[in-house]
Design a protein that fits this description.
The complex is a heterotrimer of chains A (243), B (198) and C (450). Chain B is α/β, with parallel strands linked by helices and 198 residues long. Chain B contains 6 helices and 11 strands. A 6-stranded parallel beta sheet of chain C has the order 1-10-7-4-2-3, sandwiched between helices. Chain C has a 4-stranded mixed beta sheet with strand order 8-5-6-9. In chain C, helix 3 crosses helix 12 and helix 16 packs parallel to helix 18. The longest helix of chain C has 23 residues. The mean pLDDT of chain C is 97. The chains are: A alpha/beta (243), B alpha/beta (198), C alpha/beta (450). Strand 8 of chain B pairs antiparallel with strand 9 of chain C, so a sheet runs across the interface.
Chain lengths: 243, 198, 450
């Protein structure tokens, strides 16, 4: 199966490990991974701030870049949601792109249907990224009364030694929120610190999630506050566990 | 143009395309294996008491300490010995400010939320001024949920209310306080079904 | 002051902020427990949303039907285009009957219209009788939450307030005793009142009835003692049929406080014997919202405040930081209609986490509406210059792969050199450690070595 990797701009520049781990995981489970080099960004930073017109050319560019591919996989819930839920559907090719773009965990879970087997003897706090959870429905979420499911968690189920810690607020937002992180940094950091405290109380060594943006914000706070926890993208965790 | 016309015109001009009104018939609302038991539990959950009455109402009331201590008692239900206010004869509802106990009759009870349906009556202020309330409802007049309640109620005119437990508030630091402005206690008296009486 | 500035001040008091956050989160948790007792919860939300959508599509017809039935039941119906007309109508009704003592139960609409100060200027004593509202009225401040007006106050503060206003013993802070003191105080007000004003939770077109839901009994005391009952409603309070109440009532209290139903759910058709019922129907900007497709759904709101309780930003910034009558997610969607320039900060007072949308009993897509507002504000030039410049520069760079690659390299080199505390990110967070090579650089090498 041929898969094109859509690597978020900030992953490309700041967290390449997460992108590489995503590629490794996909390859290890039978996919042939391509990285169309012309890609840049889905436009979310602009769109998030209300600049839809400025973001539109980036949607056109993405349509073009990924046109040759049947599957587009992205290790980010928020970027995937941008494509699937917020791209201008009147633009040519957008509907086709939407239909074939998936976030990494949902691709592994729904399309490749894998249950990775491996070993990762650590206490891990699973952070539910809001876009992945509530926009892509990677999990049932705490707000709705629906049969519970969690695609990210399911991928971690067969990893030996992995202990998922219990959280008081399993899916409260970390406070990143794009421009929010900067324009309302007081509340943003208060939210982030509260998430960290929750993970700490649960005994987590590592905070893992499917969105590097959330983890970047949490890592920033962890390092500034001198806390011993570290962050990992779920792809990195699984890549290490199944190596 | 009068405000009414302006407003209606503005709303008509702004109206979106027609959206269908859903039929509620398809809704399968919650039902309980034991409607009476659930009702009794719900009444307690909302801060009230629920007592099954076997014999005369008065006997059940004498087991209610607030009734025993009451001096001024209003009752819309016959057979309440301590009732000493002719409610219909009260010219000014303000005169009811010192009612200690009020006994009302409900047409039905709702298991999912412990509410009872009480149609209006003259000088209904008694129901809110009273320090304590008791409401009689028949055990065979219990429905499972609010949809069934409205179905049973059908149409009605004037005033009516669902009453669920005593008055309460959590406005101070979320501490639940029973007895805000209305009744401090609510005892629901579950009377026998008509069937149970020959 | 913007929400961000007020929020920063709120957050700065760390202990208090966490206390407020936990207090309001507790209400969200109670909602979750209550919801669990209703297996058909999601279906109810869908029905409620559809019923409201239908009502909004025929609002004028339903209002006419409502008026006809309300009048047939003996009520008098008045119409107000805006806050000013509403206030004048209410005052007119009171003045014509020589009323100088009015008791009110909760009505966010009358808060929107600033009715209290209007009436007070005309020499009418207005007593807010909901306990939380009376507390903030004493303190001369607006409510910080539409269901729990005094949620931002500690019991000790309320104790001090009551000591000052009601003569309770100094240092008394027990909620039960404070409530008892308020009971006595407000009872005297109910008995002395010459008119009672309520809001309307639901107006039933089919029957011409209005429904008022309270836990305290204040609306009922206020309307069963004085002979004049004034009920104020926004045009969007209409529900078509009596049986629709089954859907909304099952959702309302559970969403608001986690109770299965409020203590009192009073249905008024016409006045009581010897009394008068006046219903004031108010537009005040609602028809303008109805005309906007993106925001129309916000008119479905039943004012339960579940969105506030679940909002991580509301909980950590407090209702007063929004600077509008109705705060939180729904408030941030409604306020810009009133004054987009004044309230341009509110759609940004959100991380767009989407929790509000998922708890809303009428399925308003709140976080999408917040995003839509951001787009509208940007298009209208109401977003700060710095953000506009950043967006245009960003778009320019990201559209050109070579320029993006160059910018990325430069950023990785340059960013760590800026003292952290010079930029908003770095005030409280470290920058991520800068990798020497980007993903694409490593990928090229990887591909090359294969």
């Amino acid at each position: 199966m041929d898969v094109a990797l859509f690597v978020p701009c900030y992953v490309d520049q700041l967290y390449p490990r997460a992108g590489l781990a995503a590629a490794e995981l996909l390859e290890r489970h039978g996919a042939r991974v391509h990285f169309p080099e012309a890609q840049t960004c889905c436009g979310q930073p602009m769109a998030n701030a209300g600049f839809f017109a400025e973001a539109r050319p980036l949607a056109r560019k993405m349509v073009e870049v990924f046109e040759p591919y049947e599957h587009v996989v992205c290790p980010s819930g928020s970027c995937t949601s941008m494509v699937r839920n917020h791209f201008d559907r009147s633009l040519p090719g957008v509907d086709a792109l939407r239909a074939k773009t998936r976030e990494l965990c949902e691709f592994l879970h729904d399309v490749l249907q894998i249950r990775p087997k491996g070993r990762f003897p650590h206490r891990v706090g699973l952070h539910q990224s809001c876009h992945g959870l509530r926009e892509l429905r990677l999990g049932s979420g705490s707000e709705r009364l629906v049969p519970p499911f969690d695609k990210v968690r399911a991928l971690l189920e067969d990893i030996e030694g992995l202990q998922l810690v219990e959280l008081a607020r399993p899916d409260e937002c970390c406070g990143f929120g794009g421009t929010f992180a900067v324009s309302e940094d007081a509340v943003s950091c208060a939210m982030g610190r509260d998430r960290i405290a929750d993970h700490q109380r649960g005994g987590a060594e590592i905070i893992a999630g499917a969105d590097m943006s959330c983890l970047m914000h949490l890592e920033g706070l962890l390092r500034r506050d001198g806390k011993p926890l570290r962050v990992m993208h779920v792809a990195e965790l699984l890549a290490e566990a199944t190596a | 143009m009068p405000a009414r016309d302006d407003i209606l015109a503005a709303l008509r001009a702004a109206a979106p395309a027609a959206a269908a009104l859903p039929d509620l018939k398809g809704l399968r609302a919650v039902r309980y294996p034991d409607v009476k038991r659930r009702f009794m539990e719900s009444v307690v959950e909302v801060g009230g008491r629920c007592v099954e009455v076997a014999g005369p109402l008065e006997a059940a009331l004498t087991a209610v300490p607030e009734y025993v201590a009451a001096r001024k008692v209003v009752s819309l239900v016959p057979g309440v010995a301590k009732a000493n206010v002719d409610l219909a004869g009260v010219a000014d509802p303000h005169d009811l400010h010192d009612v200690d106990f009020c006994v009302l009759s409900a047409e039905l009870g709702v298991a999912e939320n412990g509410a009872v349906w009480i149609p209006g009556f003259d000088n209904r202020a008694a129901a809110y001024l009273t320090q304590h309330l008791a409401v009689a409802v028949r055990a065979d007049a219990l429905v499972h949920n609010l949809h069934e309640a409205y179905e049973r109620i059908g149409t009605f005119s004037g005033f009516a209310m669902f009453l669920s437990g005593p008055s309460k508030t959590a406005d101070i630091e979320q501490a639940l306080v029973i007895g805000a402005h209305g009744a401090r206690s609510c005892t629901v008296l579950l009377t026998p079904s008509l069937r149970d009486h020959p | 002051m913007t929400h961000a500035a007020k929020a920063a001040a709120f957050v700065a008091n760390d202990a208090r902020m966490h206390w407020h956050d936990q207090a309001v989160w507790f209400v969200r948790q109670k909602r979750d427990v209550a919801r669990a007792a209703v297996p058909e919860w999601e279906e109810l939300r869908g029905l409620a949303s559809q019923i409201k959508a239908h009502a909004l599509s025929r609002l004028a017809d339903y209002l006419e039907l409502f008026e006809k039935n309300a009048v047939a039941a003996g009520a008098q119906v008045h119409w107000a285009r805006d806050a000013d007309e509403h206030n004048r109508i209410v005052h007119g009704l009171l003045a014509a009957r020589g009323v100088t003592r009015l008791v009110k139960s909760k009505s966010m609409l009358t808060e929107e219209c600033h009715l209290n100060p209007y009436l007070e200027k005309q020499g009418i004593e207005v007593v807010d009788t909901d306990l939380g509202e009376r507390i903030v009225q004493f303190r001369r401040e607006p409510p910080s939450h539409i269901v729990m007006p005094a949620i931002h106050l500690r019991k000790e503060e309320i104790g001090e307030l009551f000591h000052d206003k009601l003569g309770t013993p100094a240092g008394l802070s027990d909620p039960k005793q404070l409530t008892e003191a308020a009971r006595a105080h407000l009872r005297a007000k109910f008995l002395a009142a010459q008119a009672g004003l309520t809001g309307v939770n639901f107006a039933v077109a089919e029957t011409g009835g209005v429904v008022v839901c309270t836990n305290e009994g204040n609306a009922d005391l206020g309307t069963s003692l004085p002979p004049l009952h004034i009920a104020c409603m926004g045009v969007e309070k209409i529900v078509p049929r009596l049986r629709d109440l089954g859907v909304f009532l099952r959702l309302l209290a559970r969403s608001a406080t986690g109770q299965p139903i409020t203590t009192y759910t009073s249905h008024f058709h016409g006045p009581r014997r010897g009394g008068e019922l006046h219903i004031v129907i108010v537009d005040h900007g609602r028809s303008r919202i109805l005309a906007r497709e993106e925001y129309r759904a916000s008119l479905k709101c039943i004012r339960c405040a579940a969105c506030m309780n679940t909002c991580p930003v509301y909980r950590r910034s407090g209702g007063h930081s929004y600077g509008v009558t109705v705060p939180g997610p729904i408030g941030s969607v409604l306020a810009p209609h009133i004054d987009a320039r004044e309230h341009q900060d509110l759609p940004f007072a959100s991380s767009l986490c989407g929790s509000c949308t998922d708890v809303c009993p009428v399925r308003i897509d709140l976080h999408h509406q917040l995003l839509a507002w951001r787009g509208e504000l940007a298009a209208r030039g109401l977003v700060p210059l710095g953000k506009r410049v950043a967006a245009k520069v960003g778009a320019f760079v990201l559209a050109r792969t070579w320029l993006y690659r160059l910018a990325g390299k430069l950023a990785r080199w340059f960013l760590p050199l800026i003292p952290a505390r010079w930029h908003a990110w770095g005030r409280q967070r470290d920058l991520p450690p800068m990798p020497r090579e980007s993903f694409r650089e490593q990928w090229r090498k990887r591909a090359g070595s294969r």
